[in-house]
Amino acid sequence: MAILKVEIVTPESALWSGEATALLARSSDGEFTILPQHTSTVGDVVPGLVRVETSEGELAFAVHGGYFQVGAGEGDGVTLATVLAGIAERTTEIDVPRAQAAKEAAELELASATRGDGNDHAAQLLAQAALERAELRLRSASK
Amino acid sequence: MAGGQERILRRRIKSVQATRKITKAMELIAASQISRSQARIVANRPYRNGMQRIIIEAALGDPAAAKKMLIAPEKVDTAIVLVITGDRGLSGAYNSSVLRAGERLVRQLRSEGASVRLFAVGKKAAAFFRFRGMEVEQSFVGFADRPSFSDARLVAGTIAAPFIDGQAQQVLLVSTRFHSAGSQSVEVEQLLPLSVPEVVVDDSPKALKGYTEFEPEVEALLTYLAPRALESEIFSALLEGAASFHTSQQRAMAAATDNADELGQTLTRIMNRARQDSITTEIMEIVSGAEALRSGK
Questions:
Q1: Which chain B positions have a beta carbon within 8 Å of A72's beta carbon?
Q2: CATH label of the domain that carries residue B112
Q3: Which residues of chain B are modeled with pLDDT < 50?
Q4: Cα–Cα distance between B99 and A126 in angstroms, integer?
Q5: CA A48 vs CA A15, A89, B182: distances in Å
Q6: The listed CATH number (2.60.40.10, 2.170.120.12, 3.40.1390.30, 2.60.15.10) that belongs to domain A3-92
Q7: What percentage of residues in chain A have a pLDDT greater than 70?
Q8: ipTM
Q9: Using CB atoms, which residue from A12, A44, A82 is nearest to B221?
Q10: What is the pLDDT of residue B2?
């Protein structure tokens, strides 16, 4: 019996782990799907939705960039897929008003950093990153 | 009258008891923080292990590319040293043992001809090193008790920048490792170039080396992976530092509470004797006064 175990892990906690039928995400090479018995793979995960299909339905996670590894798990016929992300959350747990507020704040920040002498490259990048995170949250929450 | 001494003793006992209340409270708070920070270490473990697995896979998958990122430099001109201490004192030897190890490391590096740039987490480091004529370039304060991952990111970004620019060839970490509630030790670790965790020979036959696929290629993967791995290492060091701090503080405060108990007891005994003495003296005075009056009749 081929089993796929999936773990979604962040530095602060193991977000989710359990048995799944498929793992869908996007790496910098393009979208990919991990099924049971997948060969050993290591790769990155670009910011976006990571979906886990289980026998009880589909779970979705907003992952703000990270890595994944597929390898043999413990036990016979078990494939273990681990997604490591600095920041990740269940789409059902996204606080939409907060993300909206963060998006607006990031937009303002970006505008002021761009308007300045143009030297504040670091602030610009930070604001850009914050904006992207907020947008990803909003995009994921509506799904 | 000897009542003056008694009053002084009473005041001292009161102050000892007040101090005991504070140390007891700090002990209890530290104890509650220990389990919380231990839980955070446990929660961080899957991420840390996963990160190390990926680095091992990548190193095995393309040793040539990995070498650039992972092999120690032959000559170190400039080394970066990150020292992780606490923000607060009253924690036994926690801060001083890390700081002393850091000082030793800096001296050693300097004697080998490398210049050292110091970075520190925690309030205690800057004053310590300045007194010894070593300037801390930047201190990160305010999160040593409860570090979050974004704190680790900030630290990692700051100390990795000179390494990436080529200004420094090595990044070292001095921190307290939390092995268990009863055992913590100060350790020096090389953060950059990444030290590959000891590759344990995989005994499961399914894990055939060299059959791992990479998306994207190992070289591209490692460029971005190295900073992430650094963040992960620093985060776990911060978590273990926080847990060690609380353990150390709890132990120090328990000892202080015991001391206060003992001191209070001794002082009470002395005070009782002083009171007894003054009563005896008073009775003696009355009796001898009465005696004198009677014999004077």
A1: 204, 206-207
A2: 3.40.1380.10
A3: 1, 200-208
A4: 33
A5: 16, 11, 43
A6: 2.60.15.10
A7: 94
A8: 0.80
A9: A44
A10: 52
